[in-house]
């Protein structure tokens, strides 16, 4: 018996926010400059704890299966924000009106409706449940917050994490700290040496982004305060403690490298155990080397692309270059640090031949151990225009998208040691690393394609 192909219907919304489907039109998705039906291998039921967004100024688009024509409706387009551990593989297709406002800094996934449920173009890339909270009463988290605030009234960093990150922004990492589980956030830096277009904590005065999802840290903690947070977390999460510098409410932690080095040394000197991680743009090879020698376990390097020109357009670095990022990764790997790429995946830009080759070289030539497949939180049309660049030949819009699943499979074939996921893994105090040392890897030769009948022996 042949399985029926899943063909979700278009999902749309009226001006009052009521969401419904059109049973006569099929869901259409977008990858960069290309529109099409979702691929069978990328549709999955909308995960628990996901959200649906109405897209103002954007008219819903569907495909008439009888005529094969695209139809633009008066209703609003709808997108899905997938729960953590899931990576979106396509954006919704829509037609923007001339006065459509810039979308807030969230990720927007293509969503449809079939057989009584919503489906989204996405892939689950991590089985770790660390950011699932549906079975944890809010009151339990708030009770822990109050108790910890009473217990540590003088620690400004604890107050910031609990009052600001938990109670104000509902940050998943901060909630886990309040619960005493998994990964503890360690925001430390007020400054940044990049001006990311999609920065979620600060924007230039002339930026079209009117509101960021959260505000930046307003003070610089002392090493003693940081170490107290780490020791507190270790006392409560004794099995798999992870401590992470570099959070959404701060700039880049390497701009305050001396403080980080001092904090890690104090923690390790006092018997501190567990995985000490740094989420960073990796702008300073020298700072990374010092952190590694102080006791850093893992380094997560954020990037939107392994191509220097696309990286430059998004990060807009102030006093470093993409070559510094590559060098910092190499410094970490040579010193036994487990390096992950926080890859900000964007359908139609990331999953292309050009990006596959560049990413494989970045991973292989510098000893990257893991890819964390994250969603880039940004208005899709705005980002795509930015990546094409003013005055460019629009080459990106012509580059075919191979899809997330195929891209992941082909990258793993080129770099078979790679680990895939979404979260910073627990690695103990020091990681076991199988990634090659810098300079030891060479890009595999492409497999020659043969025509039927040309095989040996024919």
Write the layout of secondary structure elements.
Blueprint: E1 9-13, E2 19-27, E3 29-31, E4 34-36, E5 43-45, E6 51-63, E7 70-81, E8 86-88, E9 91-92, E10 94-96, E11 111-114, E12 117-124, H1 138-151, H2 156-166, H3 172-179, E13 183-186, H4 223-236, E14 242-245, H5 257-269, E15 275-280, H6 285-294, E16 298-303, H7 308-315, H8 322-334, E17 338-345, H9 353-366, E18 370-375, H10 380-388, H11 395-398, H12 404-414, E19 419-421
Parallel strand pairs: 13-14, 14-15, 15-16, 16-17, 17-18, 18-19
Antiparallel strand pairs: 1-2, 1-7, 1-11, 2-6, 3-4, 3-9, 5-12, 6-7, 6-10, 8-12, 11-12
Helix pairs in contact: 1-2, 2-3, 4-5, 5-6, 6-8, 9-12
Write up this protein.
The chain has 458 residues and is α/β, with parallel strands linked by helices. It is 28% helix and 23% strand. The protein is built from twelve helices and 19 strands. It has helices at 138-151, 156-166, 172-179, 223-236, 257-269, 285-294, 308-315, 322-334, 353-366, 380-388, 395-398, 404-414, and strands spanning 9-13, 19-27, 29-31, 34-36, 43-45, 51-63, 70-81, 86-88, 91-92, 94-96, 111-114, 117-124, 183-186, 242-245, 275-280, 298-303, 338-345, 370-375, 419-421. Helix 2 (156-166) packs across helix 3, helix 4 (223-236) crosses helix 5 (257-269) and helix 6 runs parallel beside helix 8. Residues 447-458 have low confidence and may be disordered.
């Amino acid at each position: 018996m042949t399985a029926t192909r899943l063909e979700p219907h278009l999902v749309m919304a009226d001006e009052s926010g009521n969401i419904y489907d059109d049973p006569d039109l099929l869901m259409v998705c977008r990858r960069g400059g290309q529109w099409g039906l979702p691929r069978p291998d990328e549709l999955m039921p909308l995960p628990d704890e996901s959200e649906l967004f109405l897209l103002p100024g954007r008219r819903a688009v569907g495909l008439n299966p009888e005529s094969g024509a695209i139809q633009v409706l008066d209703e609003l387009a709808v997108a899905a924000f997938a729960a953590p551990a899931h990576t979106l593989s396509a954006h919704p297709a829509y037609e923007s009106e001339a006065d459509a406002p810039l979308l807030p800094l969230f990720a927007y996934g293509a969503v449809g409706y079939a057989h009584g449920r919503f489906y989204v173009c996405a892939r689950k890339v991590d089985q770790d449940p660390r950011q699932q909270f549906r079975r944890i009463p809010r009151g339990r988290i708030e009770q822990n917050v109050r108790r910890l605030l009473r217990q540590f009234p003088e620690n400004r960093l604890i107050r910031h994490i609990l009052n600001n990150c938990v109670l104000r922004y509902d940050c998943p990492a901060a909630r886990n700290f309040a619960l005493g589980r998994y990964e503890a956030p360690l925001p430390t830096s007020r400054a940044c040496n990049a001006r990311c277009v999609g920065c979620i904590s600060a924007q230039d005065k002339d930026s079209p982004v009117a509101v960021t999802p959260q505000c930046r840290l307003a003070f610089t903690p002392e090493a003693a305060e940081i170490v107290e947070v780490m020791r507190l977390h270790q006392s409560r999460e004794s099995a798999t403690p992870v401590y992470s510098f570099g959070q959404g409410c701060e700039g880049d932690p390497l701009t305050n490298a001396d403080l980080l080095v001092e904090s890690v040394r104090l923690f390790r000197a006092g018997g501190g155990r567990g995985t000490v991680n740094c989420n960073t743009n990796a702008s300073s090879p020298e700072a990374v080397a010092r952190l590694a020698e102080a006791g850093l376990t893992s380094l997560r390097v954020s990037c939107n692309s392994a191509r220097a020109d696309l990286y430059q357009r998004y990060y807009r670095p102030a006093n470093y270059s993409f070559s510094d990022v590559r060098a910092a990764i190499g410094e970490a790997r040579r010193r036994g640090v487990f390096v992950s790429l926080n890859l900000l995946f964007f359908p139609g830009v990331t999953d292309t031949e050009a990006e596959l080759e560049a990413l494989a070289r970045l991973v292989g030539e510098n000893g990257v151990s893991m890819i964390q497949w994250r969603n880039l939180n940004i208005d899709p049309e705005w980002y795509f225009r930015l990546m094409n660049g003013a005055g460019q030949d629009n080459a990106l819009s012509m580059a075919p998208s191979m899809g997330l699943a195929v891209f992941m499979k082909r990258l793993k074939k080129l770099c078979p040691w790679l680990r895939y996921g979404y979260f910073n893994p627990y690695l103990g105090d020091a990681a076991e690393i199988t990634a090659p040392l810098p300079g030891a890897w060479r890009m595999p030769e492409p497999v020659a394609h043969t025509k039927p009948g040309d095989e040996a022996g024919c």
